[in-house]
Amino acid sequence: MGNRDLATAKIGEEILPFEIETVPEYFRKKAEVELHDTPDRRAQGLREIKELLNNDEHTKNIEFDDDFLLQYLRVRKYDAARAFTQLKALVALKKKHPLMFTNFSCDITAKAAYHKIISMLPWRCQDGCAILLIEFDNWIPEELPLEEIKRASILYLAESLRNLMTQINGFKVIYDLKSNPLRHLKYCTPENLYLLYHGTQECVAARYKEIHLVNLSITAKAMWFILKHFLTDKLKQRIIFHKTTETLLNYFPKAVLPKQYGGDLQNYDTTEWIKKAMAPEKLASLGGRPRQMNV
Question: Residue ranges of the CRAL-TRIO domain (predicted)?
Answer without folding.
Answer: 108-269
